[in-house]
Write a structure and sequence with these properties.
The complex is a heterodimer of chains A (about 200) and B (about 375). Chain A is of the alpha/beta class and about 200 residues long. Helix content of chain A is about 35%, strand content about 20%. Chain A starts with a helix and ends in a 5-residue tail after the last strand. Chain B folds into 2 domains: about 260 residues, Rossmann fold; about 100 residues, Rna Polymerase Sigma Factor, Chain: A (Orthogonal Bundle), CATH 1.10.1740.110. Classes of the chains: A alpha/beta (about 200), B alpha/beta (about 375). At the A-B interface, helix 3 and strand 3 of A face helix 9, strand 12 and helix 10 of B.
Chain lengths: ~200, ~375
């Protein structure tokens, strides 16, 4: 099992109402529906992904976060709002995070760390925009337009008064490693954050 | 005429008429003492009757949704692109039921049927029926066919309204509602177009207050105009532009008012053909059913409250260039479903054909429809 699915699953309570922003082919929601009896649905814009979700029985709504936002969702209507590997691809990640925590009690966010040593090393040595397993694009065709580091994300949370309930750092294959635990912002490739505006856990 | 029946066709089919003798109370307060529905079925009902799919037709539709009545038929049923072996509504897996609604003019009891009280056609005395009335009559049809619960109720446009109404009136009797190119209520503009169509019919001198059957007349002109204006709303500016542009039938302007542009002669042809096969009173009735449809009305306009009883899962599909029932109308419906915590799926299909797109198999439409119905079939053990 992918380590990120395993980690996220632990943070979802049985029967939770879940919204997955940029749900892709529905792997995560399918997993949560089966393992956690989660209800809810995903938002997606990729036509093939939408079709795949519908065939799987993962509920999906075609909705573009950049142009439509989450205006059509009521405050606090979800237990958990998920966003895996999509934060760096939206136009205003700060607003998306605000919206996640308006419509959901808790948010789970994963994104690639732009301060990973290999990216730092690549930029330093070659002087060119880095590429990696987690970021396999050229600078001109990348959908990842808002790259940040773990430290950047945590600074944004502090500034917004958002509480980080948990953070887990994994490598590009979503595996745990002691190096990533020891020096997350240098050795971690992908972080999984659990965030909330609620003051009590 | 097809030389041979295509392998993905349900083949030769024949309709049958089912008579219902239990009185049906209608929304208008009147009661139909008995009535008949004309029905076609495709595929085989499985042992536990879990694989039945109901097809609800739109304004000018009828029971003949798929296959051919004879080898001489020029065209198959109106939704043959989506119903058949290997098609989105796969007749190898589903038992498909398609009917002509009450008030229709293709064999089910309607304005052109004989009124048992007078021995003459009902004409304007046929009660104005609503989407909810249709759904009630379809539920009796389900009883008759031994179908306790539909695997899915499916419809486009006015048919989608029936699928939605099913989910509210008989929540336990369907597992999925597929609502395509539809709307939770007509806008003022939609009603306005319907009114122009009705005025065209009722102002035709041959209409005779709806008793034209007694005079052996048909208000052809009115029906033709009604269809012409309706037809414009089914297409998009772009698709009309692509099909006709400003093309003339002859080389130069003739400085007169005959059909000089191709689009004019196309509309006239469509209107004329329609006036030969459709009943004027039925057209009035169907447009009124459209106007009146508004399940949120009793709930102060709050559709999410109206949706409270629903338990089925929804698939809502819209088409990018549909301006009759635009994607925004579908999104209104989807948002109310989300708010009411219903299970819902939604996609807006990019297609150039306006409202008519729901009848035209484009790759993405077919893919989504197939994927979803495949899942419905798996759940039904079909």
């Amino acid at each position: 099992m992918r380590a990120d699915l395993e980690i996220i699953q632990q943070w979802v309570q049985p029967g939770d109402h879940v919204l997955d922003l940029g749900c892709g082919d529905g792997t995560l929601l399918d997993f949560l529906q089966k393992e956690r009896n989660a209800t809810g649905f995903g938002l997606e814009i990729n036509p093939d992904h939408i079709t795949t979700c519908m065939g799987k029985g993962v509920r999906v709504i075609e909705q573009n976060l950049d142009t439509q936002g989450l205006d059509n969702f009521d405050n606090g209507m979800f237990d958990i709002v998920l966003m895996t590997q999509a934060l760096q691809a939206v136009r205003r990640p700060d607003k998306v995070i605000d919206e996640m925590l308006r419509v959901g009690r808790e948010g789970i966010v994963t994104f690639p760390n732009f301060a990973h040593w290999r990216l730092r090393w690549g930029l330093t040595l070659s002087g060119r925009m880095p590429e990696s397993d987690a970021l396999p694009y050229k600078w001109y065709n990348t959908p990842n337009i808002r790259l940040c580091t773990f430290k950047d994300f945590e600074a944004l949370c502090r500034q917004k008064g958002i509480r980080i309930k948990s953070r887990r750092v994994v490598d590009g294959q979503h595996q745990n490693s002691w190096l990533a635990r020891a020096w997350p912002n240098l050795m971690g490739e992908i972080a999984i954050y659990r965030i909330t505006r609620e003051t009590t856990s | 005429m097809p030389d041979a029946l295509p392998s993905d066709s349900v083949g030769l089919v024949s309709p049958k008429t089912i008579r219902f003798d239990a009185p049906l109370e209608l929304a208008c307060g009147q009661t139909l003492a008995h009535y008949e529905l004309v029905v076609e079925t495709y595929g085989t009902l499985n042992a536990d009757a879990s694989n039945a799919v109901l097809i609800c037709h739109a304004l000018s539709g009828h029971h003949h949704a798929a296959g051919f009545h004879s080898l001489d038929d020029r065209k198959p049923g109106w939704w043959d692109s989506c119903i058949g072996p290997g098609k989105p509504i796969d007749t190898n897996r589903f038992y498909v039921v398609s009917l002509n609604n009450l008030g229709g003019c293709h064999g089910s009891t309607g304005p052109n049927s004989l009124n048992p009280d007078t021995g003459k056609p009902y004409g304007p005395d046929f009660p104005v029926v609503t989407v909810a009335d249709w759904v009630a009559s379809q539920a009796r049809l389900a009883d008759h066919l031994g179908i306790e619960q539909w695997a899915a109720v499916v419809g486009g446009s006015l048919g989608g309204m029936q699928a939605l109404q099913w989910s509210l009136d008989f929540p336990d009797r369907l597992r999925h509602a597929v609502v395509i190119a539809s709307t939770p209520r007509l806008t003022a503009q939609n009603i306005a177009f319907n009114e122009v169509a009705r005025q065209a019919i009722t102002s035709d001198p041959e209409f005779h207050e709806g008793r034209y059957y007694d005079e052996n007349l048909v208000p052809r002109r009115g029906l033709m105009l009604a269809r012409m204006v309706g037809h414009i709303t089914y297409l998009s500016d772009a698709s009309m532009g692509e099909k006709f542009g400003r093309e003339l039938r002859e080389e130069a302007y003739k400085f007169g008012f005959d059909a000089e542009f191709q689009v004019e002669s196309y509309l006239r042809y469509q209107g004329e053909r329609f006036s030969e096969v459709f009943d004027a009173n039925t057209y009035l009735l169907m447009t009124r059913a459209l106007d009146y449809f508004d399940p949120a009305y009793e709930f102060g306009g709050d559709l999410s409250k109206a949706l409270a009883p629903a338990t089925c899962e929804y698939l809502v599909l819209s088409f990018s260039t549909d301006w009759r029932f635009s994607p925004a109308r579908s999104e209104e419906m989807v948002n109310a479903m989300i708010s009411a915590r219903k299970r819902v799926n939604y996609a807006e299909i990019d297609a150039p054909w306006g409202h008519d797109a729901f009848l035209i198999p484009t790759p993405r439409y077919t893919d989504i429809f197939t994927a979803y119905m495949d899942r419905v079939a798996r759940e039904a053990g079909a």
